[in-house]
Give the backbone structure.
Amino acid sequence: MPDFSPTLPTITLIAVFVALYMGLLLVMTIRGGLDLYEFLMLSMVAIVPAVFTFFPDFTNFAGRFFGVAFPFLVMFGALFVVIFLFLHRLTVKMHRLEKRSRLLIQENGLLRQMLTESRKGA
């Protein structure tokens, strides 16, 4: 397995991407568009490639440890894990909202029924 060593243009491109993307996420989090968990999960999209680019010894170790000839397969696997965790969280959030919406609709129906009955009785 050949060892990975990034070129200067690669390092520059990743550094610019990380700085801009993390800055955008930080602004969105400060404005309340993202909560802390979403900030951490979305920042992994920038941090994982940065770790693999800025630390070639770690990249080479990960490739040898997992027995792959192309160490970036490990990085893509880690990114898939991050995406699936984020997707799982969105699914759980959606289920909670659906449950809450169902309860609110039922409560609204009961209140409407009580209002109708009180108008008839008056």
Remarks:
- The CA atoms of residues 18 and 47 lie 7 Å apart.
- The chain has a mean pLDDT of 90.
- The chain has one domain: 8-121.
- The two ends are 86 Å apart (CA to CA).
